[in-house]
Design goal:
Order of helices and strands: EEEHEEEHEHHEEHH
Oligomer: single chain
């Protein structure tokens, strides 16, 4: 297992974001490899089924497609993506053995009710997937914006330090902002 070496200027991470049209059956994932000094080294694309359960496997494939052993962490914009396609960060961590960080930008309540509403026939499995996610924790960035993170393989203090380094303004870390533009 690799840890976050926050002292390294060239620390590389894979940032993943998504985009989809309401009438589409698939979501487009984009991933960029960005160094901590904001140099972009690589990029990759993937997809996930809207309302499906393939987001985690898509991210694993994107990581494999890059073939970049120098990537030290994965940063994901949201862990419930593509219309309730849940990213399993424990599975990502178990396979990749690098820190996994999921970032969201607003507090949300009642996700279990939303899952039951959108998936009345399979809500129990979606709720089980959701409950497997690590505890969601609030971080106030140096920009004075609050974000919410879930993490595997690293400490909350390391996540806060990393995200403060990667966020130039507002609440969206720069690698995610660029990845969202690509998606």
């Amino acid at each position: 297992m690799r840890s976050l070496h926050l002292e390294k200027k060239g620390l590389r991470g894979l940032a993943i974001a998504e985009s989809f049209a309401p009438n589409s059956s698939k979501s487009i994932f984009s991933g960029i490899v960005m160094r901590r000094d904001f140099i972009i080294d690589d990029f990759v694309f993937g997809s996930a089924t809207l309302g499906g359960d393939d987001a985690t496997d898509s991210i694993l494939k994107m990581y494999d497609d890059l073939d970049r052993p120098d990537v030290s962490y994965v940063l994901i914009s949201g862990l419930i993506v593509s219309m309730y396609n849940i990213v399993d960060i424990k599975k990502l961590f178990d396979f990749l053995k690098i820190p996994i960080i999921g970032v969201s930008y607003r507090d949300s309540l009642g996700i279990e009710d939303a899952l039951k509403h959108h998936f009345p026939n399979s809500s129990e499995s979606k709720i089980f997937e959701y409950n497997k996610l690590s505890k969601r924790e609030k971080i106030t960035l140096h920009t004075s914006h609050d974000i919410f993170v879930r993490k595997e393989g690293c400490t909350l203090n390391d996540v806060k330090h990393l995200l403060n380094d990667l966020t130039l303004h507002g609440s969206v870390p720069e690698p995610i902002r660029v990845s969202q533009l690509l998606a």
